[in-house]
Amino acid sequence: MKAFASDNYAGVAPEIMAALVAANHEHQPSYGEDVMTKEAIDLIRQQLGGQAEVFFVYNGTAANTLALKALLQSHESVICPDSAHIVNHEVGAPTAMTGSTCLKTANINGKITPAWIEEAYRSQVRWGAHATLPRVVSITQATEFGTVYQPKELAAISETCKRLGLYLHMDGCRLYNAAAVLNVSLAAMTTDVGVDVLSLGGTKNGLMFGEAVVFLNPKLAENFAYIQKQGLQLQSKMRFIAAQFVPFFKENLWQKYANQANQMCQVLAEGLRAKGYHHFDYPVETNHVFVRLSSDVVAKAQEAVPFYIFDEKTQLARLVTSFDTGLADIDKLLAVL
């Protein structure tokens, strides 16, 4: 049966695999000068704005880290919720690569608020040169808990950033799930609300590998090509990353895949409730369920199907649906539980 540990466990969508095979014919110019990379960039610009500057990288950690490196000097800092991936699950890569500190705030279901941003900012600048100078706010859409910022929430955060002279970075590894559940365009949650730089995902929604750093504020992309190369993220055969994004956007597969994962997650949540599992720690909005299980259930269930325990003290399980999760997979998991 399929795993519920992570959408990273899923394989590659058949349309994406076909695009990779098609990209393997004939020779193409290297380092992004091929026709597929140019087409993929055009398609991303159609989604996010014609002025966007787009750079493909291998993975999400690289996208986040190099995006922040483009925005920061070592005496500056990043404001983010304490649940953020950049502070918990990237081995300190942003700090190692930039020399900059992450200023952690509280979170509400994974989300930061304008008030907390301002508090973190004021707590630093009051000390002048004895503390860091906040320069970036980093948020995740959808959040690490699968919850979603509404466009009005994003607009309020953006307004606070602009007032304080901060850049707004978005980790969009599951941006598609958020857009699908809100039934809005990708631009409605990024360009339209004032996001400056976006880490645009792919691998959690059917791609084999590859993400993109998208500068929605194109002025910030100056010299990023050097940062990309120095950061070990300039692929010589760039077409194999880019080719995946062509059908992904051209055929609207991003929405199809995200809808499937989201819908299966709702089915899973309903099935869990029917089985008597009512302790959900976070709202089920995209493709994550955080549910409390008893220790004896966990021990037996994990032998049959992979999933993670997010908090061992409370036996809080994280169950994640993917683009290829089906009703039969949900039924099997519920039967195991």
From TrEMBL:
Gene3D superfamilies: Aspartate Aminotransferase, domain 1, Type I PLP-dependent aspartate aminotransferase-like (Major domain)
Cofactor(s) required, per the database record: pyridoxal 5'-phosphate
UniProt cross-references to InterPro entries, sorted A to Z: ArAA_b-elim_lyase/Thr_aldolase (IPR001597), PyrdxlP-dep_Trfase (IPR015424), PyrdxlP-dep_Trfase_major (IPR015421), PyrdxlP-dep_Trfase_small (IPR015422)
Domain Aromatic amino acid beta-eliminating lyase/threonine aldolase: 4-293
GO molecular function, one term: lyase activity
Domain of life: Bacteria
Pfam family, one: Beta_elim_lyase
Entry keyword annotation includes Lyase: yes
Key words, A-Z: Lyase, Pyridoxal phosphate
Similarity-based family: Belongs to the threonine aldolase family.
Subunit structure: Homotetramer.
Name of this protein: Beta-eliminating lyase
Protein source organism: Piscirickettsia litoralis
